[in-house]
Amino acid sequence: MFVIKNVNVIPMTLGDEIIVDANVLITNERITSINGSIPPGATIIDGKGKWLIPGLIDMHVHVPTDIHFGSRYITQGATIFFDTQDIMTLYIANRVTTIFDLNSKAEHFGQRNEIGKGKVIRPRMALAALINGGSGPGRIVNTDYDGRQAVRSAKAEGYDCIKLYSQLNIETFKAIVDEARKQGMKTVGHIPDAFQGKLEQAFVPNFDLVAHAEEFSKQTTEYSDEDAKRFAKLMKDNGTWLSPTLITMVDILSQSRSLDELRTSPTLQYVHPLLQSKWLTANNYNKNTSAYRVAHFEKMVAFHNRLVRACKAAGVPIVAGTDTGVSGVVAGFALHDEIELLVAAGLTPKEAITSATRLSATWLGIDSLTGTVEAGKFADLILLDANPLSDVKNLRRISGIFVNGRWVNRFTIDTMLADLSKRNTAAEDDYDWKKMTGSK
Ligand SMILES: [Zn+2]
């Protein structure tokens, strides 16, 4: 049992009144009371002058899984194993207590099972099965009949949601969305290329979330406020939400200009050395760059901000996602970038934090468990040294977090990060993406 004493609670509920000087009781994994009686023997955490908010949710990540290099590998047939705790440490260190993986495989269930045994300090994981058309990548289906079967198979395998991908044809896309509705599964996706010029046809019931603002910037050459308003209206009328993943395009723009920012980024040391090598030596955004592409990405970055403002004005719910896994987008750290970018685009700090807490939990259907600070919910909690509503950067001023019924304080987090960085740096010479994959 833990009590966080004399803390200012920002519950992030719909009514959301700050509860000042509160005592929050936590028993096992749950919040048992706010300002209830304090039983003897509870471990006391001093919350005086601090702020308590719900743990953050990243609605778009790609968790790395073990890579088998097969015959291409220089020593033939080696597998690179990623340590689950090392992956999850970055989320925990950044107060991310739930992640949504948007291209999940059997290995992600393996990670989730490992986590379930309690050996790994981790975020909760929601898993989406990626379904695609054409010749890939992903689970490939190109007919109504096969699309529906792919959804039923994913449901039977235990996936939470369906991810729709770019090469689906129109008929199959609609069949998948409809079958997912029948199976009680939400859908999130790209807008397939087949809808080019007939965008409105993609907005069918149960197409629940557009995974990137970029899906809309692909649908225009004007990048105007009128376009943004038109796209927001399509979402609003269909009940579709948006996860803009602003940070992805900001990072892509940066890398298309130069790799200097990535190379000197203070968070790169926490990325597995194999991925560091990939990002720095085989970076497609940088390799295939041109003045034209840089200018194009600049326009997209500006348009994505317009789209966020248009969604806010139209009442389209926005959830915070990062597309972690894209080169330069570092797990956990990127969610803070995304929240700050949402504020820069026009959301208030409170709206941006809501997008990374209550709204995301609501979309995932886990709002009775997490996303707000209320008695009965999981103790997915962040203790901050300053009020994040007055400046969203205060989300970086962490005192500690609660996750899986454990209190992880600032010192422990710093120690975990320092240890990870040390091991990554020591192993740097062992990983060379180009040699291992034989790529140029
Ligand atoms: Zn993605």
The whole-angstrom Rg is 22 Å
Cα(first) to Cα(last) distance is 55 Å
What sort of overall outline do the alpha carbons produce when their principal axes are compared? globular
| Strand content bin | 15-25%
Poorly predicted ranges: none
Specify the number of helices. 16
> Percent range for helical residues?
25-40%
Mean pLDDT: 95
Structural class: alpha/beta
Highlighted features:
alpha/beta; 19% strand; binds zinc ion; 18 strands; eight-stranded parallel β-sheet; single chain; 440 residues; eight-stranded mixed β-sheet; 16 helices
Describe the structure.
The protein has a domain at 56-102 and 211-371 and 411-437. The protein has helices at 84-93, 106-116, 144-157, 170-182, 214-217, 225-238, 246-257, 260-263, 273-281, 284-287, 291-314, 333-345, 349-355, 358-364, 410-426, 433-437; strands at residues 2-9, 19-27, 30-34, 43-46, 51-54, 56-61, 67-68, 79-80, 96-101, 124-132, 139-140, 161-164, 186-189, 209-210, 241-242, 381-384, 398-403, 406-409. The longest helix has 24 residues, at 291-314. It has 16 helices and 18 strands. Strand 9, helix 2 and strand 10 (124-132) form a beta-alpha-beta unit. It has 440 residues and is α/β, with parallel strands linked by helices. Strands 1, 2, 3, 4, 5, 16, 17 and 18 form an 8-stranded mixed beta sheet that branches. It is globular and about 65 Å long. Zinc ion binds at residues 60, 62, 102, 323.
Q: Can you give me a brief rundown of this structure?
A:
With 440 residues, the protein is an alpha/beta fold.
